[in-house]
Write the structure tokens for this entry.
Amino acid sequence: MTKRSILALVGALALGAVAIPAGAHHSAAMFDPAKEVALTGVVKEFQYTNPHSWLLVDVKNKDGSVTTWGFEAEGPSTLLRAGIHRGDFAPGTAIAIKGSPHRDGRPAAAWISATRLSDKKDFNPRAGFAIR
């Protein structure tokens, strides 16, 4: 092997090593797409941020305690294409929300859909991926 070939091989391996963690970061493997949770609660916070947005929802349990659930979605550009704006979920907004739950049982899910209860408006964050 020539010196040039060795350098090219080392460079390719280095690029591959960097690409593997980047791909894993954007994986949704922690959520179970075969299951779905449906909850009603009140928005605690809408983190409209890159690379992923989070809708934090306070859900009242049967015993009266409250659990904060986190619903993950894509970043603002994808949410905007889906018609979801930063102000759509102000703190205190009552919503019904569905998601694919976290595999390890934590109160988190991949956001599938939500309905704002005050006006029955539906929000589908995955609509931002639609080709128009």
